[in-house]
Amino acid sequence: MQRLKLFLPLLVFVLLAAVFFGVERRVMTGDYAPTDLPSALIDKPLPDFVEPALSDGRPINKSQIVGELFLLNVWATWCPTCHFEHPFLLKLAAEGIKIVSIDYKDEAEAAKRWLAQKGDPYSLTLFDEDGSLGLDLGVTGAPETYLVDAAGMVRFRYQGALEQKIWDKEFAPRIAELNAQGSTP
Q1: How many domains does the chain have?
Q2: In-domain check, residue 112
Q3: What are the b/e assignments for 143-180, b being 16+ CB within 10 Å?
Q4: Domain Thioredoxin, which positions (predicted)?
Q5: Which residues constitute the domain of residue 142?
Q6: Are residues 74 and 18 in the same domain?
Q7: pLDDT in tens for each of the 185 residues of the chain?
Q8: Model-level pTM?
């Protein structure tokens, strides 16, 4: 029995390694994507809210941002992945994609400096200091991006940094489909 106890750590390691390599294989074959997290908001309206604009603190509500197709991007200065994603968001904005953002659980002055230094791809930034809007959206972390149609319905959610590959695979086809149905960016 004592000898069996000596091999127990090895058995645990082998078991954990098998689980790890099994998940890695599923990720590589496309059977599992860790960013495919379900959202209760898909095909439901964007939640009602009143949040201050980062720029000047004026209250903004849902009716002021809906009316055309847009991306709703959740970010923060403390988020390293948001720094990686930012140049791609600038590119999308330059191509005419409307992006509204939520500065999530952040410091307002740090966020203003960040946008001044790196460029501001957003048509509007909401300041969600306490995370209440993020909670209503079901945000699990930054960055997250929601595709919202002209009627204010959430059509897609992606957790992680946007980049060209993700855009081409996940967002561009959905936007093309929404445009064919009459929602224009």
Answers
A1: 2
A2: yes
A3: bbbbbbbbebbbbbbbbbbbeeebbeebbeeebeebee
A4: 40-180
A5: 44-180
A6: no
A7: 677 677 777 766 777 766 666 666 665 555 555 555 567 789 999 999 999 999 999 999 999 999 999 999 999 999 999 999 999 999 999 999 999 999 999 999 999 999 999 999 999 999 999 999 999 999 998 999 999 999 999 999 999 999 999 999 999 999 999 998 875 44
A8: 0.80
